[in-house]
Amino acid sequence: MELTKSKALLVQRAESEDGVYKIGQVQNPTVCGHRGKNRMPFSSTAGIFAVSGSINTATLEMEVILEVYEMNLGILHGYANRPFKVDLDLSMVKGSIGLRLTGLDELLLDIDTKVFQVAEDGTGKFIEYRKAHFIQEIPGVRCAPWLSPGSDH
Predict the structure, then answer these.
(1) FRET pair for 123, CA 20 to 30 Å: which of 3, 46, 114, 153?
(2) Which helix (H) or strand (E) is 91 found in, with range?
(3) Helix, strand counts (H, E) of the chain
(4) pLDDT tens, residue order, the chain (153 aa)
(5) Distance between CA 128 and CA 130 in Å, rounded?
(6) Predicted pLDDT of residue 114
């Protein structure tokens, strides 16, 4: 099991009995807790996609939980000022979703997918679903260098 810079769950199957599992949490001391003074939580939903987590306003480090059709894809780690993209190859969703921080301190969820849609007669087809969904403003993060406070944009 590869650990990222996050708190991860470790699932082990008991040797003694089938169907018995033990779940524990693996702590990584290199990551600030989500309750730290520089950590800002976020949460938003766009159709079948849900995103939540926290961002460190000093380092732009993010811990992100992504859900598709209420299916948890896990805890992911990245930085808001670097490309953060998750490629999806699921039975009902193909494409990618990502997070980005704009020059105006807005955290956006970028959705570029095809979603399987079932018709009333039981047939179905993939429908394109693209959207840049606003999650929230992240105050305290410095704007892009070309924007200065008080300037007319």
Answers:
(1) 46
(2) none
(3) 0, 10
(4) 333 333 455 555 556 667 776 666 555 444 444 455 688 899 999 999 999 999 888 888 999 999 999 999 888 999 988 889 999 999 999 999 999 988 878 899 999 999 999 989 989 999 999 999 999 988 765 554 544 445 444
(5) 6
(6) 96
Q: Which residues pair with residue 40 across a beta bridge?
A: 55
Long-range contacts of 143-150 (CB under 8 A, 24+ apart): 143/103, 143/104, 143/105, 144/103, 146/103, 147/103, 147/104
Kindly tell me the sign of the dihedral angle through the C-alpha atoms of 57, 62, 67, 68.
Answer: positive
Interatomic CA distance for residues 87 and 71, integer angstroms: 15
* Residue 109 DSSP SS3: strand
User: Contact, 97 vs 85, CB < 8 A?
Assistant: yes
Q: Give the separation between CA 31 and CA 37, rounded to whole angstroms.
A: 13
Total-model pTM: 0.67
Return all residues near 49 (Cβ < 8 A) that are at least 6 apart. 66, 67, 68, 97, 109, 111, 133
